[in-house]
Amino acid sequence: MKKQVKYLGLIVLSIIAFLLLFKFVNNNKPFSEGDQKFTIRKYNLQQQGFKGLEEIFRTHTELSSILLIDTFDGDISKDGTLGNFNIVLSGYNNSKEYLQSYRFIYNSKKKILNYAGPKSNIKSTLPQIYNENNEISFLDTQLKMIPIKEQIEKLDFPSYSIGYNSNTKPLEGEPIVNINNNDKFPTFTFDEYKSGKYGKSNGHTSVIFSLYSGSSLALSENKIMYNCIPANSESLSGNKNNFMKKDYYINGYKIKITRDYGETWIDIPISEENLSSTLEFYRLGIEIPPDSYYISDNPGGIIALLYGESPTLLLSKNDGNNWNNIKLDINLEKPITRRIIGFTDEINGYLALGTDWSMGSGEAKILCLTDDGGLTWNQKELPLSNTSSTLTGITFLDNTIGVLSLDSGMDEKFPKLFISNNKGDSWNELNLPLDKITEDVSYLSKVDSLTYENGMYKLVLGQDLNNNKKVVFESKDLSNDWIFKESYEAVIHYPG
């Protein structure tokens, strides 16, 4: 009998040892993409933070040397233990160049972790620009300043979650909690928070953690937003020193545009097939010519994009709520590689199309004007057609006055310029004091803009796709009495 008990005990111990070994091996094998059994033992989010999760991930899979957090959502128990979570990471190399994205989703009840990495080709919903405020090490320190357990004790939400989204933009006047110069955030009742006692948002992009209740942070009425001091305020979307006011980004086969330095983005409803063929036609990687799209200064205004080989005009007259595809009946007998579109108001606009130069046939270009918001276009000739003077730029001050720039040839540093004061019916050469331009400007290729402010016309010339020098000339009467005003470096488009 004693022997049987002894053997039974050995069998039980063997089974326990086997299970422990199985669990150990299971928790130490590399992650494969997709679902796998995995156990994350009692994990205190405030104490262990994001660095603890990073350590777990790096133990089981190869990740980029630098990780940034795009989004995080995690369920929290009343004692601060992390339950289900979903985290999306962007990976960068040591030169801060984007490599790829990763996603980890954990089901704490079923002990299942879903990993998506290189094979899944995850795409972020934001431009892939290195942002110090999203570094996992920085956000780890900010998260640990939130007294999660102590704060939960003062609330009566039905459930609790912690959320983080890159470049969160609270509504102006919405309650937030500022940390100021303290070591950690204060605790308070929900009524105290809603009163705005601890701060109110200025309506700009911020580094925000949210303690909330419900299945969705965006829909939750029970929400506390913690406003962290950014690692680098200039890296926040909306910063005028680092972001173009009007810009676009392409991610996968989706394109979005912004008119507020990247704080908000509007979807452009172009199909994957059309965007793919457009990018293939331009051969600029994931970039498009900067003048081939237009964004109104005013919310609710016109958005326009020239796409496809033909090309076709994709047009919205109400800020992207409704769209029209407008086929342009134009044949220049060669691929239309040069495309410029703009509007001077909600009904008057201009469209210039041109080809590259080739031996024997030269080049071709044409101007089109609209007075119905872009639905129909009337064609007009441009000077020096069928020569080597290819189209580089055009801009209109209003529906009458415009400036045109053409290529001057390989040996010339500056473009040929023409001005019209009769809606493009005729063009006269425009002479500028180019010899007055400072030595920091090695060349100019196109006209960027013509404006009128405080009794002066201001003409801005610029460079090509990846260079950002600008030169400003001023005149009182649009004659040849122009003066060189200044040169400066502008913010350029971030590929992505």
TrEMBL record:
Keywords noted in UniProt: Membrane, Transmembrane, Transmembrane helix
Gene3D superfamilies per the UniProt record, alphabetical: YVTN repeat-like/Quinoprotein amine dehydrogenase
SUPFAM superfamilies hit by this protein: Sialidases
Domain of life: Bacteria
Membrane-spanning ranges: 7-25
Listed name of the protein: Uncharacterized protein
